[in-house]
């Protein structure tokens, strides 16, 4: 067995207060991070303040690690710094102890491609590390054994360095967010409605984005389509989308920009959600949010995810929310009806689709058109000049033109977003004034 292979072998551990511990998701997360799960230890009991698990289970955990030659223990729980240290003391040497959130950060780090995504991952990692650096400082003062086991080595200046890095990253993220705010306003001024896709990871948001995008087949090579941003892949794996991906779509008379965002995850601590708040800016500042859920999951799972999603969205979001029940190709019509009824209080009048097979996408497009802010109608009477022809061309690009009458004057009737109406009036006023 090679050393590289050994470092990827992991034992899963999970404690629940009651019932039976389900390790399906943590196994999926471990695989997404590149680990091979070779064993698992679970326990149903109240949390032990010192070890999280009971001491007897920690001994069984240590034996499993030694037997399987694992180099990592992954807890599907949030561990405190001292619990990590205590567990590490009971395990064979050089065995890493990471909890659910450290694992998620590893996945984020592997998937971060843009500067913004990389900064958010780094910020989350630093927020995760700060209390552990404080714990190591406390242990050092008590002359505890060197190595700090699951906590890693101790660096006397590390705590202060972390705080400085957090401040620097916040400043850089604020600069990026300001640029993105400016870009959103430019897009609105260009006549686009902004639609954001939100929901849990693996709900099918990226596939839906590709289905809605103009002239793009779900399985088409991305290089053949002129994207605004790189298209997220449609894959059955967690955290395919870490940053945001924006694509153009035609919905009725409207030009719409649809943005896919990082998926929500269950049971995230506040510090981790805060680190990725800027990614949700595309959701908070959209004209409409499509909340995508996997209809093939149980009603209980969907309900829990909807509640958490609403809590996250309603904190700062002002746009209407439409729930999209995706993956109808995996369930029959009767099950879809049953789940619609069961979820009606959380998801009134949802739209059921299969993004993968393109089922009911036209109904979703109609709903998007209906929910977006109403277009206003305008009629402009303009002098017959070269500058007027430029304005007519601009209106064609930014609005839905109904008629244009070219005579002694140019009369144009159109529908558009209120911002476009205002701009066209201002431009028309300048033309009329210039020709007077």
Automatic annotation (TrEMBL):
Binding site for Mg(2+): 206, 241
Function: GTPase that associates with the 50S ribosomal subunit and may have a role during protein synthesis or ribosome biogenesis.
One MF term in the entry's GO annotations: ribosome binding
The entry's keywords: Coiled coil, Cytoplasm, GTP-binding, Magnesium, Metal-binding, Nucleotide-binding
UniProt source species: Haloarcula hispanica N601
Location(s) in or outside the cell: Cytoplasm
Entry coiled-coil feature ranges: 109-189
Main location: cytoplasm
Protein name (record): GTPase HflX
Domain Hflx-type G: 193-376
Alphabetized InterPro entries for the sequence: G_HFLX_dom, GTP-bd, GTP-bd_M, GTPase_HflX, GTPase_HflX_N, GTPase_HflX_N_sf, P-loop_NTPase, Small_GTP-bd
GO cellular component, one term: cytoplasm
Assembly information from the UniProt record: Monomer. Associates with the 50S ribosomal subunit.
Keyword GTP-binding: yes
Protein family: Belongs to the TRAFAC class OBG-HflX-like GTPase superfamily. HflX GTPase family.
């Amino acid at each position: 067995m090679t050393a590289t292979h050994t470092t990827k072998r992991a034992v899963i551990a999970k404690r629940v207060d009651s019932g039976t511990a389900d390790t399906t998701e943590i196994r999926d997360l471990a695989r997404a991070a590149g680990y091979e799960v070779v064993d698992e230890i679970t326990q149903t009991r109240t949390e032990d303040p010192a070890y999280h698990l009971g001491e007897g289970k920690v001994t069984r955990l240590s034996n499993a690690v030694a037997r399987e030659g694992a180099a990592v223990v992954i807890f599907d729980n949030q561990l405190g710094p001292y619990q990590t240290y205590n567990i590490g003391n009971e395990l064979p040497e050089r065995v890493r102890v990471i909890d659910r959130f450290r694992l998620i950060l590893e996945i984020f780090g592997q998937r971060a491609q843009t500067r913004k995504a990389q900064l958010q991952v780094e910020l989350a990692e630093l927020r995760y590390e700060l209390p552990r650096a404080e714990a190591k400082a406390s242990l050092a003062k008590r002359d505890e054994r060197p190595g700090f086991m699951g906590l890693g080595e101790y660096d006397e200046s590390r705590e202060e360095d972390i705080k400085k890095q957090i401040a620097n990253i916040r400043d850089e993220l604020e600069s990026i967010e300001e640029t993105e705010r400016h870009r959103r306003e430019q897009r609105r001024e260009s006549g686009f409605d902004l639609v954001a896709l939100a929901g849990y990871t693996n709900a099918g948001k990226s596939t839906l984005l590709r289905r809605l995008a103009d002239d793009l087949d779900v399985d088409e090579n991305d290089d053949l389509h002129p994207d605004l941003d790189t298209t997220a892949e449609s894959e059955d794996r967690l955290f395919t989308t870490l940053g945001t991906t924006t694509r153009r779509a035609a919905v009725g008379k409207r030009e719409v920009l649809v943005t896919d965002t990082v998926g929500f995850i269950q049971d995230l601590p506040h510090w981790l959600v805060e680190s990725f708040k800027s990614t949700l800016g595309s959701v908070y500042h959209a004209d409409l949010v499509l909340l995508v859920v996997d209809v093939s999951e149980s009603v209980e799972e969907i309900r829990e995810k909807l509640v958490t999603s609403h809590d996250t969205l309603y904190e700062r979001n002002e746009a209407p929310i439409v729930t999209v029940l995706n993956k109808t190709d995996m369930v029959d019509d009767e099950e879809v009806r049953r789940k619609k009824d069961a979820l009606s209080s959380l998801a009134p009048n949802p739209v059921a689709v299969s993004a993968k097979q393109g089922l009911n996408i036209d109904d979703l497009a109609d709903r998007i058109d209906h929910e977006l802010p109403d277009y206003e109608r305008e009629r402009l009477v303009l002098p017959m000049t070269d500058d007027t022809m430029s304005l007519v061309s601009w209106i064609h690009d930014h609005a839905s033109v109904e008629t244009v009458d070219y005579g002694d004057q140019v009369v144009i009737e159109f529908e558009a977003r209120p911002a476009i109406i205002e701009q066209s009036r201002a431009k028309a006023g300048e033309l009329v004034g210039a020709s007077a």
